């Protein structure tokens, strides 16, 4: 699909917010180029593929384990559409809390009380599909290092991390917090891609969004953990573990092995980051974290055997601690056609990200109509 620069929009980040925005704009006839520094789409909704030493393939939803929705009509329409395409299914499991003090499950919810959805066959299935729709050009493994606005050209120029040109665009949507956060410099050593001080219509409070870091532990067992009656639960009175999910109990997953994902508490992750820094964690750090999280899991006294696969992953800034644009749903500079969207704008969950992506698409569509 070839279009003029007047109808081109760059989207930075292929999490659910950016992917929903890209798909919605494309359906409105606007050409979209999506840039994602990772190898594939999904962000926190990505799925991890791992190979064991003996050649077995394992998959883990190591970020968002599931999502739920309220009565937002726009989100409900999308869920119905995704269900009709086989991208989403309900995860019919009871959720509970495990109390470390009493070693008991508490607050076991009634089955079907709240609908919980998962992507099929992985949480990233939704973003994968959205990023492949007509009108969306997805460029994975391409990080954006700099964005420049030109009043003379009335357009944006994007450059890669090494200064290479990524093209000119009439509008930009960023769903990636690192685009405007000092964390970008802390991790890469390079200047922040965009100086939000030049965009008075976008509040400066967004430049440093507080986040809750987290370590995810991916585990695989030869046999089902029969002493655990609940497939999804949070932890009470643990300084190390926040929640646990049995991935292999979800619809569309392989049952060849029993796969679990554990999430650490934010406090535990903050302590590790304080000692090791924000740079990519070393294999030694991840191995130490994996062992500590697994030992805490075993201390539940739930008869947890050794795992044949055990690997940790760090989410440094994926879980926002606040919402910065609850009323507007996204941030928008009309003059320069710059939108900021993400779960950090509405609510720190998948539904909030979807709502924000839809809002950014609406702002962009309206802004481009006036050109």
From TrEMBL:
GO molecular function, one term: oxidoreductase activity
InterPro entries: Amino_oxidase, FAD/NAD-bd_sf
Domain called Amine oxidase: residue spans: 116-363
Pfam name, any one: NAD_binding_8
Listed name of the protein: Amine oxidase domain-containing protein
Organism annotation: Capsicum annuum
